[in-house]
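Q: Hi! First time doing this. I have a protein sequence and I read that you can turn it into a structure. Is that right? Here it is:
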Amino acid sequence: MHLYYRAPRTPLLRNTIARLGSHIDSRGSGGYVVAAGSVLPHGSYRILDDRPPIPLPSWLIELLAPPPPPAPPHTGAPVQHRDAYVQAAITNQCARIRHARSGTRHRAVLLAANSLGRLVGAGLLDYAHADTALLDAATVHIGVDDFTAEEARRTITDGLTYAAHQSPPTASGRA
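A: Yes, that's right. Below is the predicted 3D structure, encoded as structure tokens:
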């Protein structure tokens, strides 16, 4: 069963899964639903009440509104590195994370962490330096479509740690 309401302009409501309860999903900005007239193998969707949607009740708006994002873990200047190649890698991988869309965020964060993790394993980049830069980039997504700081932290740690242990040290012996 689908219930349709007019969503408010603010706050911007996004899609949720089971936030209101088991088997209750909501669709907001960027979401879509199967509408009346659609035919599926088990039957077709049909309209039971053709009145125009009413405004979403305020108590539902409060339950569906995304939580405010936490303060970024890094509040200073952008992370800088003395080596131009390493700095370009940091800049590019952080951009990959910042520009990731919903549905691709986890993969983007993991790939970025893997990329910088190889530099950590090669002794070209300090783990804490990479971790700080990636976490800072991921903060733009926290609170959007149920993306959490914990998910960002876990994915970055997994990617950095895995790739750092797969990379051989450089010829200079740094590790």
